[in-house]
Write the structure tokens for this entry.
Amino acid sequence: MDTASSSTADPTPTREAPKPSADPSTSATSDDTDEAGEEDEGRAGSAATGTASAMLDELTVKGRAPKTGYDGDLFKWRADTDHNGCDTRNDVLRRDLTTITLKAGTHGCIVLAGTLDDPYAGETYDFDRSANAVDIDHVVARSNAWQTGAFKFDDETLKEFGNDPLNLLAVSSSLNRQKGDGDAATWLPPNKSYRCEYVARQIAVKHKYELWVVPAEKSAMERVLAKCDDQPAFAEDVDWPGPGDGDNVTTKEETRPAGQKSSSSGSSSSGTSSGTSGRSSSGSSGGSSNSSTFFENCTAAREAGAAPVRQGDPGYGSHLDRDSDGIACE
């Protein structure tokens, strides 16, 4: 689970999302958690090469490790790991949305609007960044990864995992929060026709990073895949679209986000909030961005979809750049 944008409710679906090409009759049913049986046992170790089941058989099975030392920030979610100049959240949106509108002046990065075919819900939504009703889900949750081997990762591998396109999907915020950090034994997408692909993707992530599965998790995956024995293993090499790329892309200007403050207001000697007056002695923080505005804090920058903010970009201020490396709100 990861909340890239937040809202109190999802938008009303505009239409039912297109179904995956797989035959729905092979997808998991709502009785998945009750259907372990002889068929599953007979499949063990005999799955066809190149299938998700065969990849699952290659994973180690053992108990969950303690959560000691876990911190989601260790995974550096939203870092620009592919160095394309765009934060990971907007990379996901440009990949997963259709009929995309990009914000002018952001080097083809920031998505203002589009259409989401939510694979978890099986419904289609109109996405508007101001509504913030779309989250970015880590298909294998970071805390689940931590307890199945990621606690041993070095810093670079943690960051790679946290921003890997294989492990990230744009979905409705309510389902992302419903899932939490659950594995396949505790949560499956309500869209039954997507469950086989969902589990195959989880298996691919765990295989790529040499994570293990716990016994209940593997059993749940086997029950899902028993409905689709020929489900192919999910490709582990997935790339982000380049800046400006996406489906049916247009570009337009956007009015200043509500979280942005005018630099002139920061220099006012009266009528300012305590947060603004606390920066008034360093008013050049707004000016250093070559912009007349700056974000009040990193929360405002993230809510606006602008993080990380680079020196010279609209909204940048030195008060946001704690390590003074020219990149704020990393």
Observations:
- Confidence is low (pLDDT under 50) at residues 2-10, 17-44, 262-292.
- The chain has two domains: 15-225, 255-328.
- The first strand starts at residue 15 and ends at 16.
